[in-house]
Amino acid sequence: MQPTLQRAMQAAGGHKIEWQGKKFDPRYRFRRQTLYDWLGDLIPDSLLPKMRAIIPDDEAARRDKARNRATEGRYQTNCTGQGVRTSNEEKRATARLLRAQGHTYRAIAAELGFDDKTIRNWCRDED
What we know:
mainly alpha, two-stranded antiparallel ribbon, 6 helices, 5% strand
């Protein structure tokens, strides 16, 4: 942690580090792909599946896609097609019922635990 703090204090003081003839902020600034580009030849293929930080962008995207598929529809189309998740369809029906009974959007939102803008969107067709 000490080197990180030292570099942060240097940056706050306006200190610059010279690298390849250019002056840079002393804080850490590398991206995953940059590190992989520089170090990829040194990383054995058998080690790549176990690595988490220094991996190429396409591998990171592949892993992210697999993780999203594995989690219960995290980014898949689990919507009703009307801008409502299927898991919230019952709450949407409750919101519409309460609105029909004359409750305010704010009161409905507080009761159901949603933002009042969400409740407005859900009840838009009913108003």
